[in-house]
What does this fold into?
Amino acid sequence: MVKEEAGGLPDSDLVRLAKEGDREALDELCTRHIASVFRVCRGFLGDDDEAADATQDCFVKAVRALPRFRGDASFRTWLLTIASNEAKGVFRKRKRRAEQALESAGPLVSAKPEAGDVTALKQEAEQARVMVAELPDKQRRAVTLRIDEGLSFKEIGEVIGSSEGAARVNYHHGIRRLREMMI
It folds into this structure.
């Protein structure tokens, strides 16, 4: 499927032009996909600030790597793979920092939201993010890419580095585990 804005060029043409040095084509590619990249990063990280940083790093890496983009996958899939890897790296760094902080921390205090500060919908969304974050890596990535970005299982497999069948299995196992957590 070729991603195309209403009245705009398809991604493949924009990539070709961007590789030839057309700055407007590169800007259009970034504008067209920034929301998807941010959603993928936020889905993995659950934090808007970290997701914004990962999104920026993703685009920096993508622009630098664009001359090497061969077109084996769609530009969107290639870009979301970079985003997924960036978010995964931030997640690993966060985990290392948390482990170090716990070693030197005193007693942990539970932070309870004040009544009326957070709507029920926001609380449920946060609970869902927490549950998704508890899934194993490939299941978390498959669920996030399928639900947030609507990627096919083939595209998910390309992004997470597995086959289409493995992506499908990871997604279904992730959904099953989420259902079990909700009970």
